[in-house]
């Protein structure tokens, strides 16, 4: 590091002697200014990236038409409940700049370093995180690595912001799981576009998970930490399907999550509450039993954990648009045609 800054480092060290303690002294000297540095040695506009005036780009004429459509779609699918945005930034001006732009559409949570950011991500399970890279205590890179390796938070998209522009740093961020990487100073409209694009992609992924789960409860492919989590949850539900008392607390203990964390995790992945998720698995298994076995409606209801057959019929019709008997008859006709 000293040599890269065109400095010198020397050391003087003595061993213990009689009546004299040992000591080691390192001496480092650096040349003043930057005239001795080449253009490749310096990060361009590094100081400007932390100067808030550098963020006011002339982008007022840019219209984010596609982004606005995605925003409306996301809010509509979220029952118009504001998504949660966690902003992790140690520069007060930049933090306020980001918060003031997004506060109308998001419930904002802030942190001033990576350690606080990790704690708040676990506590609140936000829908998306925007984080600086260069921060005290814990960097944005370490924050991203921790968030993406924790089953409670692995699904959360993360945008990293940094003044470090060389390609190697961007690759480092993306390799440890960052969903996007934006160089400071940035246009806030660029950040806005990336935020809604990531949330929209997450919504599409959630729809895919939901379809796979509802079509084939036991056959979800395991290709990511989130799918491993869903597979574990579904396996536990199916192993206890006949138990009417199966509840969210039991499920939370199985995956080592609090009720609130489990709720937000399953909601983020499937757009269902944990209770709805359990009921969906019960009903889908019921549909398979009605389709492929000789059990009657009452027997199937008890086999999937319903103690009230009338309530089972009501839930089944809400799920499939048909009563269990109508569903069974339709399946029989289809099998006869084949």
Describe the structure.
- There is one protein chain.
- By secondary structure, this protein is an alpha/beta fold.
- It has three domains: 8-42, no CATH class; 50-205, Response regulator (Rossmann fold), CATH 3.40.50.2300; 216-337, Arc Repressor Mutant, subunit A (Orthogonal Bundle).
- Helices cover 50% and strands 11% of the residues.
- The chain contains 13 helices and seven strands.
- The strands form two sheets. A five-stranded parallel β-sheet has the order 4-3-5-6-7, with helices on both faces. A two-stranded antiparallel sheet has the order 1-2.
- β6 (158-162), α5 and β7 form a beta-alpha-beta unit.
- It is elongated.
- The termini are far apart.
- Residues 217-223 have low confidence and may be disordered.
> What is the beta-strand fraction?
5-15%
Radius of gyration: 28 Å
CATH class of the largest domain: Alpha Beta
- Kindly report the CATH topology of the largest domain: Rossmann fold
- The CATH architecture of the largest domain can be given as 3-Layer(aba) Sandwich
Question: What is the CATH homology-level superfamily of the largest domain?
Answer: Response regulator
Shape: elongated
- Taken in chain order, the helices and strands follow as EEHEHEHEHEHEHHHHHHHH
> What's the structural domain tally?
3
Helix content: 40-55%
Report the count of strand segments: 7
Structural class: alpha/beta
Strand order of the largest sheet: 4-3-5-6-7
Number of helices: 13
Termini distance?
Answer: 74 Å
């Amino acid at each position: 590091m000293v040599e890269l800054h065109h400095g010198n480092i020397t050391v003087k060290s003595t061993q213990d002697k009689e009546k004299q303690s040992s000591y080691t002294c390192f001496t480092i000297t650096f040349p003043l200014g930057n005239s001795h540095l080449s253009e490749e040695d310096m990060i361009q506009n590094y100081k400007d990236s932390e100067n808030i005036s550098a963020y006011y780009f002339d982008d007022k004429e840019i219209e984010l038409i596609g982004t606005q459509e995605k925003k409306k779609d996301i809010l509509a699918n979220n029952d118009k409940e504001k998504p949660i945005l966690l902003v992790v930034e140690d520069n007060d001006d930049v933090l306020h700049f980001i918060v003031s732009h997004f506060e109308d559409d998001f419930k904002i949570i802030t942190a001033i370093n990576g350690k606080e950011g990790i704690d708040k991500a676990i506590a609140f399970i936000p829908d998306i995180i925007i984080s600086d890279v260069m921060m005290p205590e814990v960097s944005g890179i370490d924050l991203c690595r921790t968030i993406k390796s924790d089953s409670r938070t692995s699904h959360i998209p993360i945008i990293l912001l940094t003044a470090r522009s060389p390609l190697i740093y961007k690759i480092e961020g993306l390799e440890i799981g960052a969903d996007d990487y934006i160089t400071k100073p940035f246009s806030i409209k660029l950040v806005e576009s990336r935020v809604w694009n990531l949330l929209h992609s997450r919504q599409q992924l959630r729809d895919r998970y939901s379809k796979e789960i509802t079509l084939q409860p036991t056959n979800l492919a395991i290709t990511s930490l989130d799918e491993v989590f869903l597979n574990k949850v579904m396996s536990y539900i199916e192993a206890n399907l006949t138990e009417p008392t199966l509840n969210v607390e039991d499920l939370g203990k199985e995956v080592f999550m609090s009720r609130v964390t489990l709720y937000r995790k399953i909601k983020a992945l499937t757009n269902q509450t944990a209770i709805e998720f359990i009921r969906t698995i019960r009903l889908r298994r019921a549909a398979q039993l009605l389709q492929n076995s000789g059990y009657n409606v009452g027997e199937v209801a008890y086999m999937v954990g319903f103690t009230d057959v009338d309530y089972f019929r009501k839930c089944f019709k809400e799920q499939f648009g048909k009563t269990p008997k109508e569903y069974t008859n339709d399946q029989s006709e289809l099998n006869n045609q084949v």
